């Protein structure tokens, strides 16, 4: 009933009075008589009487809910009529009368929708989703969850959004989409953490654990069950702590860590024995029996299975009883208690065969065959083995049939999806054609006039575009011509400057020889004249003009080379590209003709595509 209690706290804001305290009940009944029908205080008292009896006296609680509805209708009070329908729906939901609960939830919802009470609308939709989920109507449940989530947009409603995501995760897990379940459960956890709600965080962690358990990732599942267990034990919620312990035992059993499986199973059994949680005792004894069987402690395994079988017989749960009897027979066979093993095995076979549980029947007949062989009844042992083989064949056929059914389902789904897609495409095509026809009829008259206008406008536009393109070509030609002029001028200036500086350098050398006292000062001047920094500055300016005319020539040259090119080689290639003669190039680079020939030779070696004596022509063609 835990989920129901949480929902109730979401739905109701009045103070929850303690149990069936007679003094409180007498006080409320006395207070009720003091107020006339239709008085708001009387409605509040009725609601407190309803809440006080909800968990202990459902019939009285139903009576108070119906009284709220009756008196609200007499006084035409829409608000309290909605309240009465809502709380009566909760009562009927608790009592398992799902269809009636849905009816009263449906009656209550219009009032909250009309008054924009999003919280109550969302909770009613959420409760409706729970009922649909419990009945296996997953598509309807998800529909109502989406509607509920749209009501919880207020930042104060993080807890409610967490509940929506948690239930969505449960539905995804029940539908076999474990990855989707992990996603929504993780979202539920984050929302609960943001809201500071530790209880919902623990619930979300447990749902994440269930999803990983379904994915057979038992290690991760155990981590989340441990986290939820810590919270439940800290808050003394021993029912859900026991649920976590049962699942921890299951996870560690699957991993093969039987020591931890026994530890958590026995711990859960202690909570059950102290708290009287009989509905969980069967599960934990069944798990412990299997774990003790796995470690070879057949005596303890038999004890657990015997206790579980007694509880199942008392509760008349034949489905699980057939499973436990099969296990009990197997354990007693290991203990060599052949009489009891045979008796329990035969009863188990009768139950599981009736239920069509082939795996257990296959296991049971195998155990009966071994029991008969040990008792010396070889004819019976043979008969059981034949029956066992028959079930084994049935299992194989069932497996193949299941695979075929799965493939058929996938094929039918794919065919259905393709058919729907084709129908949508045809519908869209028909709609498009209808729209085209309509537009054609509408535009026919306008089109003729527009055609003449377009012809005139097109001719004028073409003429103007031609003029504009010619103007742009002329402007570009002028720009290129100016850049070429600037580049030639700059190259000439560099050549003249180089000659002047060489001449000045020679004169300084002569003066240096004639005036030894000024040698230090003259050496500095000579170094300044030959400094790379000055040369680099001149070439930087030159490169700017050069790229304006010849674009990415330098990049093309580098791609053509089979080795990296030095700055001096790049400069030499740029001057050749400008179609300068050797004398002009040597003057600009301040080198002799002999040094220039050597530099060209080294450059040609780095350009495989340049033939012997064809360096200048090759560079100018790039």
TrEMBL record:
Predominant location category: cytoplasm
GO cellular component: cytoplasm
Gene Ontology terms describing biological process: regulation of DNA-templated transcription
Signal peptide (UniProt feature, chain positions): 1-19
One Pfam family cited in the UniProt record for this chain: TPR_12
Keywords: Cytoplasm, Membrane, Repeat, Signal, TPR repeat, Transmembrane, Transmembrane helix
Transmembrane segment boundaries: 443-462
InterPro entries: Bac_ResReg_Asp_Phosphatase (IPR051476), Sig_transdc_resp-reg_C-effctor (IPR016032), TPR-like_helical_dom_sf (IPR011990), TPR_rpt (IPR019734)
GO molecular function, one term: DNA binding
Localization per Swiss-Prot or TrEMBL: Cytoplasm
Alphabetical list of SUPFAM superfamilies matching this protein: C-terminal effector domain of the bipartite response regulators (SSF46894), TPR-like (SSF48452)
Family statement drawn from the similarity comment of this UniProt entry: Belongs to the Rap family.
Protein name listed in UniProt: Tetratricopeptide repeat-containing protein
Origin organism lineage: Bacteria, Pseudomonadati, Bacteroidota, Saprospiria, Saprospirales
């Amino acid at each position: 009933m835990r989920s129901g209690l949480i929902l109730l706290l979401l739905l109701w804001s009045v103070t929850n009075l303690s149990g069936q305290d007679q003094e409180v009940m007498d006080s409320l009944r006395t207070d009720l008589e003091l107020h006339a029908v239709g008085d708001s205080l009387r409605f509040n008292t009725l609601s407190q009487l309803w809440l006080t009896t909800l968990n202990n006296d459902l019939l009285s609680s139903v009576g108070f809910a119906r009284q709220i509805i009756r008196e609200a209708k007499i006084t035409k009070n829409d608000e309290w009529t909605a309240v009465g329908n809502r709380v009566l729906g909760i009562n009927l939901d608790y009592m398992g009368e799902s269809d009636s609960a849905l009816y009263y939830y449906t009656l209550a919802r219009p009032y909250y929708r009309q008054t924009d009470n999003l919280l109550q609308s969302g909770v009613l939709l959420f409760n409706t989703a729970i009922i649909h989920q419990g009945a296996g109507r997953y598509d309807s449940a998800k529909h109502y969850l989406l509607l509920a989530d749209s009501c919880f947009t207020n930042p104060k409603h993080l807890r409610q959004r967490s509940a929506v995501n948690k239930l969505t995760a449960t539905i995804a897990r029940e539908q076999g989409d474990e990855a989707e379940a992990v996603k929504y459960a993780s979202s539920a956890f984050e929302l609960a953490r943001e809201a500071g709600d530790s209880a919902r965080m623990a619930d979300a962690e447990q749902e994440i654990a269930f999803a990983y358990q379904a994915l057979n990732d038992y290690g991760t599942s155990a981590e989340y069950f441990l986290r939820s267990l810590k919270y439940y034990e800290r808050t003394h919620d021993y029912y859900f702590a026991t649920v976590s312990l049962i699942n921890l035992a299951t996870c560690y059993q699957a991993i093969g860590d039987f020591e931890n499986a026994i530890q958590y199973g026995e711990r859960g059994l202690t909570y059950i024995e102290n708290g009287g949680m009989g509905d969980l005792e069967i599960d934990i004894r069944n798990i412990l029996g299997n774990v003790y069987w796995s470690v070879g402690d057949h005596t303890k395994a038999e004890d657990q299975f015997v206790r579980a079988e007694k509880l199942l017989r008392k509760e008349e749960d034949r489905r699980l009883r057939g499973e436990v009897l099969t296990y009990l027979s197997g354990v007693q066979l290991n203990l060599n208690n052949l009489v009891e093993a045979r008796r329990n095995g035969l009863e188990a076979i009768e139950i599981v065969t009736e239920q069509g549980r082939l795996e257990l029947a296959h296991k049971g007949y195998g155990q009966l065959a071994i029991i008969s062989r040990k008792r010396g009844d070889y004819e019976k042992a043979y008969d059981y083995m034949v029956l066992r083989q028959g079930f084994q064949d049935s299992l194989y056929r069932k497996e193949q049939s299941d695979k075929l059914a799965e493939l058929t389902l996938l094929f039918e789904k794919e065919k259905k999806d393709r058919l729907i897609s084709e129908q949508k495409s045809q519908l869209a095509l028909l709609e498009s054609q209808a729209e085209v026809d309509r537009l054609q009829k509408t535009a026919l008259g306008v089109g003729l006039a527009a055609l003449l206008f377009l012809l005139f406008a097109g001719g004028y536009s073409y003429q103007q575009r031609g003029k504009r393109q010619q103007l742009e070509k002329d402007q570009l030609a002028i720009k290129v011509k100016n850049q070429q002029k600037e580049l030639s001028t700059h190259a000439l200036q560099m050549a003249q400057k180089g000659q002047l500086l060489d001449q000045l350098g020679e004169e300084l050398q002569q003066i240096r020889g004639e005036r030894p006292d000024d040698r230090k000062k003259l050496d500095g001047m000579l170094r300044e004249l030959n400094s790379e920094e000055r040369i680099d500055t001149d070439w930087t300016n030159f490169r700017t003009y050069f790229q304006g005319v010849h674009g990415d020539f330098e990049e093309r040259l580098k791609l053509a080379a089979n080795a990296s090119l030095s700055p001096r080689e790049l400069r030499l290639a740029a001057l050749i590209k400008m179609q300068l003669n050797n004398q002009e190039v040597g003057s600009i680079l301040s080198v002799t003709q002999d040094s220039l020939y050597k530099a060209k030779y080294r450059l040609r070696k780095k350009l495989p595509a340049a033939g012997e004596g064809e360096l200048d022509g090759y560079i100018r063609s790039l």
